[in-house]
Amino acid sequence: MSNKFFFVFFFVFFFSCKMDKKDTYATGEISLAIDPSLYDIADALTYRYMQAYPEAKIKLQQVKEKEALKDLLNRKVSSIIMSRDLTAEEKSIYQQKIDKDFQPAYFAADALVFIVPKNSPLEQISVDEIKNFLTDGKRKLIFDGANTSNTDYIAERLKLDQGKIEYSSLQSNENIIEELNHYPHHIGVISLNSISRPFGEKAKALRSKIKILAVSNGQGSYLPEKPYLKSRQYPFTRLLYFLTNENYFGVAKGLIRYSCTDIGQKIVDKNGLQPYNLYKREVQIK
Known about the structure:
Number of domains: 2
Strand content: 15-25%
CATH superfamily of the largest domain: Periplasmic binding protein-like II
Helix content: 25-40%
CATH architecture of the largest domain: 3-Layer(aba) Sandwich
Distance between the termini: 74 Å
CATH class of the largest domain: Alpha Beta
Order of helices and strands: HEHEHEHEEHEHEHEHEEEHEHHE
Mean pLDDT: 90
Shape: globular
Largest sheet: 10 strands, mixed
């Protein structure tokens, strides 16, 4: 009788412990929600993380940025990547729903890029012209749809009402590049991340079809290149950061730490974006 009692006790204890055991940074499965314009850098970081930790599974969900934030708050996903600052109201909701301080984990500088067909005579555009194009009703700028990270960011950056800005739209950043020749008097607006991989065959093919405009702001004219992203002189530099609702050190926080430390920052650099955390290299000569 006592042996039977011991067996039942051991069985219940073993399986209750197993059910209570949380996943670790190296094991478990999460979903990461990202705007499609930020897919490439998210794909690069998660791919390398899963190579380092084969028992960690990260599923990428491509949704518009506002939907990603809603999914995080409703715990439908464990982590998201944002490209704009949260409003005071959004930060308050985050702290209430997630029950933790708002702590963005910055890892890269991306940019909005203004593009025209290769044969266009345009070489640059000014911040004032961009603001005027969004409010004059002519819809000269082409974005990847409403409520995307690109439209959200530019409305915030130029202090314009998101609901009142006017623009043309195509389905995706890639689609804008592919179709731009059909709209010679328009200017496409895409994320740098869409074309930033220096040696990626797809990125090289897309870059070959367009001309990138320099953006002037009264102090100078700048291309979306790393030195100007690092100094934030390029007027439409935007910082990318992770948010998570994970309350223990699991895969979501593991990915964030990985992305923000040396190895992750090298991946950011190799993917053509500006790393947020810069690491000094020390060489000893003997």
